[in-house]
Amino acid sequence: MTRKADITFDGLLAQLHARFTAANRDAARGVLRDVQLLIMGLAGLDKAGLIARGGNQVPENVLGHIESGFARYELGEPVHRILGRREFHGLDFSLSPDTLEPRDDTECLIELVLSHIPDRRSSIELADLGTGTGIVGLSLLHELPHARGVLCDISGSALETARANAARLGFADRATCRQGDWLAALEGMEPFDILVSNPPYIDAEAMAQLAPGVAKFDPHAALYGGADGLDAYRIILGDAAVWLKPDGFLAVEIGHDQKQGIHDLARTTGWAISEVATDIEGRDRAVLLRRDQ
Ligand code: GLN
Asked: Which of 46, 132, 166, 189 is 20 to 30 Å from 6 by CA-CA measure?
């Protein structure tokens, strides 16, 4: 970036937009949005603030932040990794190198769970397995004002991020964080009404074809689901029954081509798929399972 002492926010935006469009980065798709998000995040401005200050000179220290952020962007780092935060379900979540970056697809899982709760004011006990940033469990607590949630992860560092997000978003009194390997994290607790998870589900073949921004910056452990992508579901479906109340349910996000695999696994582990939800592109993205009567 050519350091120009008197550059305005508008000037900087135009300059960076032109530069990254010319580089044809990611086929120029979303470049303007990326550039805007980065400038806003790095300058500590919201959209209204950026518009209002468009003609103002960018302060020297802010320009420094923006330069170092764009140096990372140039090397392919995703915008929300650089900012260390991302919005999900209208809530602002912090990320860390040990957490998956939240994906909009996961909204399907939230909606699927909510659509099976007759009364959102009931006192539901839920557990989010492999919580990462905590987006699934905390978004549900946001929608269910009397629910309590246990956020579980095998990674202590991811759990620190989930704990910090829970506290910052005002859920500290309703969310408990527990470290452990899938359902082992629940040891000693009472059965739940809902078990929910967006586990790692990418298979070996797809891992080899991940976009560089994903392969390099999302944690491997949060992505890779074993050779066929179903390892986590084998564990979860194998162990979940004892952790659910009799009329409780289990809901998981899945890969778009995994419905059949989950169906087969469910049959051998005593579960039945009661609903499949599709994402915005019409692909299978989440399933709700109940005990097979
Ligand atoms: N539950 C977290 C999320 O949906 C983490 C998922 C994961 O790491 N696979 O973002």
From this structure: 46
- Residues linked to residue 233 through DSSP beta bridges, in sequence order: none
Residue carrying the six token digits 């086929």: 27
**271-278 and 244-253 strand pairing:** unpaired
Tell me the per-residue pLDDT of 106-159, one tens digit each, with 9 for 90 and over. 999 999 999 999 999 999 999 999 999 999 999 999 999 999 999 999 999 999
Q: Using an 8 Å Cβ cutoff, are 104 and 80 in contact?
A: no
This prediction has a pTM of 0.94
Smallest CA-to-CA distance from 103 within 80, 82, 126 is with 80
Q: How many CB atoms lie within 10 A of CB 177?
A: 23
Q: Which residue has the CA at smallest separation from atom 7 of ligand 1?
A: 222
Assess contact for 29 and 21: CB atoms under 8 A.
no
CA of 131 from ligand 1 middle (Å) equals: 6
